[in-house]
Amino acid sequence: MRGKTAEDARLLELLDPVAEAAGYGIVRLRLMGGSEKRRLQIMAEDANGEMLIEDCAKLSRAISEVMDAADPIAGEYTLEVSSPGVDRPLTRKEDFETYEGYEARLELDRLAEGRKRFRGVLAGVDGDNIAIDLEGEEETTLIPFAWIVEAKLVMTDELMKRGAQSRAARLQQQDTE
């Protein structure tokens, strides 16, 4: 889910250790575009779930160095390194734990209960399953993590408030340093 294609998976194998060595985790990687100019988009964050502009630049330099040496992409491409943003994609099991209590959209690779798309409040992780409270349902629904092809937080007032609080705490910490 962090990558969509086999090529994305190979790039993740190459770049995960680079990001980890620099102090970041790759949330999502996508190589987009046809044979012309392609775009390698990488969303990453540090251990605190943050990614500042300086962090993007640092990780971009580290990745560029390895990409130049390994040359795993034929032709020209543009590298974009960014934060996952407030309404971030959820790509790892720990993301579903971190954002428990927040609303999310899930898309599956198969039908479950007659549908592929679900929207509800995340209720954590239960083994290899993602727990989600769906509107109108009394019981928590368990969806196998392996079935999820796309998951993203829904922009809500609560999520915006969390982002604002995180930003305020970061600014306050910078002021004290």
Low-confidence stretches: none
| Domain count | 2
Quickly name the level 1 CATH class of the largest domain: Alpha Beta
Radius of gyration: 18 Å
What is the number of helices? Answer: 4
- The CATH architecture of the largest domain would be 2-Layer Sandwich
Can you say what the CATH homologous superfamily of the largest domain is? Answer: Cation efflux protein, cytoplasmic domain
How many strand units?
8
Distance between the termini: 38 Å
Strand order, largest beta sheet: 7-6-5-4-8
Q: Kindly state the mean pLDDT as a whole number?
A: 92
Helicity range: 25-40%
Biggest sheet character: 5 strands, antiparallel
Shape: globular
Structural class assignment: alpha+beta
Order of helices and strands: HEEHEHEEEEEH
β-strand amount: 35-45%
By CATH, the topology of the largest domain is Alpha-Beta Plaits
